[in-house]
Amino acid sequence: MSTGVIIALIVIVAAVLVVAAVFAQRARGPQHGSLKRRFGPEYDRAVARHDGDTRAAERELGERVQRHGSLQIRSLETAERERFEARWTAAQERFVDSPSEAVGEADRLLAELAGVRGFPGGDQYEEQFAALSVHHAHHVDGYRRVHRATHTRADGAHEGGANTEELRESMVAARALFEELVRPGRHESAHPRTPATHTGETAPAARAPHTWSLGKRRPKES
Prior knowledge:
Residues 183-222 are annotated as: Disordered. This is Secreted protein. It comes from Streptomyces parvulus. The chain is mostly helical. The chain folds into 2 domains: 3-68; 78-206, Four Helix Bundle (Hemerythrin (Met), subunit A), CATH 1.20.120. It is built from 8 helices and no strands. The protein has helices at 3-39, 41-49, 54-68, 78-94, 99-117, 125-135, 141-155, 164-182. The longest helix has 37 residues, at 3-39. The relative contact order is 0.11. The model is unreliable at 24-30, 187-211 and 216-222 (pLDDT under 50).
């Protein structure tokens, strides 16, 4: 076989491989873009968890969507919403004196709230987290952080567990998911409570997310 023929065959094979790669990329392109948009930072975490294997990460995330994408989310009654808000307020106030206990309560509260809304129960953390990531991908990391901090301390994984600043950051991050879960759905209207005359508290819907500070004691909010 002449050198020219060999070169021609190499060129043909290379062209076929390029065309195949282009078609493969186009075939997976829409799903790739859709998953990346849907999961946001969770997409990047999944890729990192799979050591950069994008296909494996997308397979995992696609399976999450198949399992939980059509989940029926239950609305909260006004009284339920108020009880959860009061418990969160109590937990954030407790942080000043007992950061670890406050973070543990935040972990339990998110698990219970998610279960009430229709996500898998808190006793199935991995499955509950997977379902939450499908519907609240941009805020779910806070739940991961308080859960990890709580169970690292409980399991004695390392002496002292997370420091106070790490606990503070995890609880601030977790509040974003709490507010997503506790707020009225699109078809609901919020019913602010009458401000309490002795505290001057206002309806929770009026607060902007991520403005809460754990640096000092604050008047009770709801």
